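Good morning C.,

I know you're traveling, so I'll keep this short. The sequence:
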Amino acid sequence: LGYNGIIIVKHTQRPVTAGVNREAGMTKEAFLAFCGAELGTEPDYPFDEDFETAVLRHKGSRKWFAVVMKVSRRKFGIDSDEAVDIVNLKIPLEMFGFFGKEQGVYPAYHMNKLHWVSVLLSDTADSTVEFLANVSYEETKTIPRRRKNESGRNL
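The tokens, ready to paste straight into the viewer:
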């Protein structure tokens, strides 16, 4: 399966023990730094009295492409009350099913599960987080409208 010239190969990652991939792990700070360096975005904190939840917006469209928040592992069916940093990312429908719990990727928490996934930062390989962040950024760009001629047909 390809996505914007990128070939996606369904793969399994290092084994996960009790919902935690001990060899993986990106911090919230590292994720925000990656998005700043690679995508030129800065976090926005749009929620009153909540300075922990960060929103990242596409530079062109200003649409959200990532939401970083702290959530209990229990929300993902893991038997733990530990609060962990997650990022919700938008992915195209054709990519659903290529990443799963073994990679630290779950149906989105608190977002539309048809278009968004939740990535547990501490459980997911950096390369997977970075790849999905780039995909989400691309998914939220503005698509140029086609110009129409006088008769209303596309040019």
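Safe travels,
E.
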